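Could you help me review a protein record that somebody else here produced? What it holds is a sequence and that sequence's fold in token form. I need someone to confirm that the token line plausibly describes how this chain folds. Take the sequence as given and treat only the tokens as open to question. This is what I was given:
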Amino acid sequence: MRFVGCSALAVASLLLVGCQDSAAKKSEYDTGLKALVKKDNVVGTGREAAVNDMVFVLYRGTFIKDGKQFDANMDDVESKLPLSFVIGAGGVIKGWEDGIVGMKEGGTRELDIPSKLAYGVAGRDKIPPNSDLHFEVKLLYVLKKTDEGVYDLFDDKVGTGPVANAGDTVTIHYVGTYLTGKVWDDSRERKKSVTFPLTVTPEAMPGLIAGIEGMKVGGKRTLVIPPKLAFGMSGTQHVTGDQPVKIVVDLLEVNGKAN
């Protein structure tokens, strides 16, 4: 289920800048590929990526010629976060923009990208000029312009105790992760529950406040919160900004009352 929250924080994209082909200089990594090739290994079930959407992806890049890997954030999700970019804004190579359109959240796709849709005659870092590239891409999250203030809510367990309403004081345990599953906080691991009022303030995460409303004590709820309703573009000392976050909440008390 999707719900609307409120915040004025802006979202910024991470950039992966490429170059267009402008000559026919031969390269050892030129396989003669002429057009983009797409292959879906897993068809997702979530929102579909379209032009002007911000997408958050995991990827692995290799050379088509010999399979040698040149870049990835898919191999070490504990240290690397999803790459984000706006489709159609020119922040990534053309083969990515064309190749990811139509994917759905949760899906995985292989892309064979000719040099002219990748880094062209200029190359980049570990990529020689005129190299045809292969990418494995997993689409984690699609953020549409109209959904920057919308969060996803899933009830894992419906409680039986008092209901949490706006303005109530709640006590919770929670686990907060990035979409890769990397944990940025776990109140049970710290052995300390958290108590706070369900009131939107500059210090509070709007998506968490709104997402807890309607829960009953004893319930467990999973929230997926876009950057605008989470930590914004700047983040905090311990949490990277400009990232959607997943928070699993266990509601322990409402106004001091348990089950």
